[in-house]
Amino acid sequence: MDKIFKIGLFGLVSNEQKTLGSIFKLAASRSRQYSVVISTERHSADIVLVDIDDANSLNEWRSFSVHHSQIPVVKVTKTAPNKVAENEIYLRRPLTLKRVLETLDKVTIEVHKYVPELVVGGEEVLGEEAHAVLSDAAKSAGKVSLTGIKALVVDDALSVRKSMEIQLGLFGMEIDFAETGEEAVEYIQKNSYDIIFLDLMLPGIDGYKVCKEIKSNKPSKNTPVIMLTGKGSRFDKLKGTMAGANEYLTKPVEQAQLKEVINKYLPNIKV
């Protein structure tokens, strides 16, 4: 699912603004797209760029940020400091296509948690750019503060576990992983989880039997169970519902679908 992120500007000379416009046009076919908003609409921006080499622009932004401190900031400058605070992002001049897109993409990942390249169970061959984005997403997930929410992911496919590790890690979840139905049952008996993602086809005990075990176990019976499976027939969904599954997602599962499920069953997590 493509998304257009609104960019607010504080300063930047006219040539730089034209450069940004050209870059954003060239990037119009990407999943992440960008568009500059007029000055009166900067309060609705997803990201703001501030020319910190210009005192007037810097002061204007400081006055603005008093009321809109939640909007992430990219500081545009000729010379970025060698040591950068963890919450600071710089964009060094001159503004090149590579620098601008890499910087803005980083903000969409770290702040807006937007990673459409993360497809759970997808068999697509990813390009070089997508691999770079996923690498950045994995790093970002490793830096997110834990929310206290604990998840169990049960799937025998390494690619699915890796994808879910990044997806859920971006939202500050602590995650346990199981590769077999028997291993999942052991985890459930020993631990308490806020949500469980369960593959249907597993070595040994299948997902239906694991789900029944979860729902028959008093400590875990109210835990949301989200079935992740390659099967999508009505019969399979009915069987999953009869086993007690709360939701049934057919692979490949896109990030937007996963966010909907998290919002539904874990409303206290900001996704």
What do you see in this structure?
The protein is α/β, with parallel strands linked by helices. It has two domains: 3-110, Rossmann fold (3-Layer(aba) Sandwich), CATH 3.40.50; 128-265, 3-Layer(aba) Sandwich (Rossmann fold), CATH 3.40.50.2300. It has nine helices and ten strands. It has helices at 14-26, 55-65, 97-110, 128-143, 158-169, 181-190, 207-216, 234-243, 255-265; strands at residues 3-10, 32-36, 47-51, 73-77, 90-92, 150-154, 174-178, 195-199, 225-229, 247-250. The strands form two sheets. It has a five-stranded parallel beta sheet. Strands 7-6-8-9-10 form a five-stranded parallel beta sheet, sandwiched between helices. α5 (158-169) links the parallel β6 (150-154) and β7. The chain starts with a strand and ends in a 6-residue tail after the last helix. The mean pLDDT is 89.
Cα distance spanning the termini = 16 Å
Mean pLDDT: 89
Number of strands: 10
**Class per helix and strand makeup:** alpha/beta
List the helices and strands and how they pair.
Layout: E1 3-10, H1 14-26, E2 32-36, E3 47-51, H2 55-65, E4 73-77, E5 90-92, H3 97-110, H4 128-143, E6 150-154, H5 158-169, E7 174-178, H6 181-190, E8 195-199, H7 207-216, E9 225-229, H8 234-243, E10 247-250, H9 255-265
Parallel strand pairs: 1-2, 1-3, 3-4, 4-5, 6-7, 6-8, 8-9, 9-10
Helix pairs in contact: 3-4, 4-5, 6-7
